[in-house]
Amino acid sequence: MTLKQLESITGTLSKPSKMPCYGYSIPAWRCKVGYKMRKVAGSICSACYALKGRYIFPSVKNAMEKRFASLNDTEWTPSIVALIAKKEKSGYFRWHDSGDLQDIMHLTKIVCVARFLPNVKFWLPTREYNLVNRFLKDCTFPENLTVRLSSLMFDGDVTERQNPFGLPTSGAAKDGFTCPSSKQGNKCLTCRACWDKNVDNIIYKKH
Fold it and tell me: Can you name the residues that pair with 170 across neighbouring β-strands?
């Protein structure tokens, strides 16, 4: 298929200015856990960056809604695999610079994409702890997919109860590797810590 044909199925890839690679964003207003947490004072979701700025431009909202609708297309998995293979030359990819997992099938499809593209390192941040833990009771993540559980509160961490499988985490609390982007023009530049399973916890500044 041509790029145009693939994008007609999956929607276009996103290109966050901070990232060294392409990503795939769906609407933050479609988040399951995030929808509930937006109403909680002091939660990270209450200050969600993906519900303001360029994310609310009509053209961006329409593109994200198209990607969201495409998740149920039976051709989504092979099409997104082909699209990433054609466009992503950095060897890295980010899932969900906006939005989050919808269900087990959504997570399963992302895992399948990683298995089909072993030379690409994927990073999936998520607050859908229950979905991830349900998946891991019977399955495993491929080595090239780093699923990083994101904390819910600005002053809190992901607990052992929420993370029984010991996955890497991220948050805005105390201990961990501090994301250097705020000191380098809000860009990753050479840092790839988010994709590195050996970095246990990453701290991001509020934005």
Answer: 150, 202
Using alpha carbons, select from 191, 144, 188, 151 the residue that is nearest to residue 169: 151
**What would the two tokens of residue 9 be?**
């199925």
* Cα 12 from Cα 8, distance rounded (Å): 8
For the four alpha carbons of 97, 115, 129 and 91, in that order, the dihedral sign comes to negative
Sheet with 177-178, side-by-side order of all strands: 23-24, 92-95, 121-126, 145-150, 169-171, 201-203, 177-178
Reduced to 3 states (helix: H, G, I; strand: E, B; else coil), residue 170 is: strand
Which pTM does this prediction carry? 0.94
Look-up of token digits 């099938």: 105
For 6-48, how does the pLDDT look when each residue is reduced to its tens digit (9 = 90+)? 999 999 999 988 899 999 999 999 999 999 989 898 888 988 8
Three-state DSSP string of 139-167: CCCCCCEEEEEECCECCCCCCCCCCCCCC
Q: Rounded to 5 degrees, what are φ and ψ at 124?
A: -125, 100
Q: How far apart are CA 16 and CA 4, in angstroms?
A: 21
